Amino acid sequence: MVSIRCKMMVKSELDKLGLHYIMVDLGEVEVKENITAEQRDQLKIALLKSGLELMDDKKAILIEKIKNVIIEMVHYADEFPKINFSDYLSGKLHYDYTYLANLFSEVTGITIEHFIIAHKIERVKELLLYDELNLTQISYKLNYSSVSHLSKQFKKVTGLTPTFYKQLKHKKRDTLDNLLIGTDV
What we know:
By secondary structure, the chain is mainly alpha-helical.
């Protein structure tokens, strides 16, 4: 539950059930009163209809928190933290990084590092498509050590260089523009 819209949906469902929440945050909700089994079932059904899930398993909740911290950092933060990410994650979640890393790998089948890389590459793609920043600026924004490092990682994950990826976008746009010329739409 990262987006504001998700949080609003959860708040709305809690309001419908007459539950008073203290806090609705990354994958967790704190309510003032005790929830009955019936209210819990109603909330679970309502959330499922909205594409959200009510989780009971503490490990699954922690995995979601790890994912949410990473997604929030990569996609929504203005700048990457300037400290080591393992320290950042441990500080945010108040767990030892080794425990978090082992749990994440055990449950998801990939490392936290690979999850971060996948999201960073998606963010690079997004920023390339926006065409507001050059590669040097993107590299700095996402805390890469160099443009070369970003380019190598991008190519390893996508099979394309960032420049070629950007050209594909322009080629597709040109093709669509050309299709509309001379039509009586």
